[in-house]
Amino acid sequence: MDCLHDGGGNPGLIGEYFNNTELEGEPVLSKLDRNINFNWVITKPDQSMNTMGFSVRWTGRLVPKHSFSGYIGTISQDSMRFWLDGKLLVDGWGRNNSAKRSVPVELEAGREYDIRVEYCKDTNGVEIVLGWNHNTIGIQDAAAAAAEADVAIVAVGDSERTCGEGIDRNSLELPGDQLKLLKAVYETGTPIILVLQNGRPITLEWEAEHIPAIIEAWYPGEQGGNAIAEVLFGD
User: Fold this and answer.
1) Among 74, 89, 139, 162, which lies 20 to 30 A Cα-Cα from 101?
2) Structural domains in the chain?
């Protein structure tokens, strides 16, 4: 996992919250946020904040534990922009610009990258996210672990970001790099049990041809882990 810190070794980013849309004056609230992943559709950051027309600035540093080529980006229906080492990578400021964007990056392990994120509550946005993706590292680690195992149980499927009300799709395939993960484990020669956890139909052309054991668990609920384990062990 990569490390966010405030520049003084404390985990997270410094969040400065303003009761205006231009990040002006003294913040009404300053606090350390472990990450930027908020949903303010039915609440607000603090009782001292306006319900609408506020803004937030987060600053700190990102220190990757692995070198990687991947993507970094933001998600918001409101205005949002993001700088990495002083370079503006995402400019979603204003109603005519989208803050739902990801851009390719190459990051070095152990290097400290300055981060600055600005957000403005200026529409009816509900979500504020900063994230990054370097699935190649996870795929390599998973394949290496599978190569040493007697059987590989590969659990894939959907999340609230890929399936649900108001989420349209242009493909019924597994989202993201999940098929790449499955193929990498398959290439090790270790027998595979594929477990699907999803709330919609999924096309399984390659999967059905190459994987002899597939469990469709759908969204199995809070006891889903126990239920799937009982099926896997024949209990």
Assistant:
1) 139
2) 3-133 (2.60.120.260), 136-232 (3.40.50.1700)
CB atoms within 10 A of CB 186: 20
Per-residue pLDDT of the chain (235 residues; tens, 9 = 90+): 468 888 888 999 999 999 999 999 999 999 999 999 898 877 889 999 988 889 999 999 999 887 877 889 898 889 999 999 999 999 999 888 888 888 888 889 899 999 999 999 988 777 788 887 655 557 888 999 999 999 999 999 998 778 888 777 788 999 888 999 999 999 999 999 999 999 999 999 999 999 999 999 999 999 999 999 999 999 9
Distance CA 27, CA 114 (A): 21
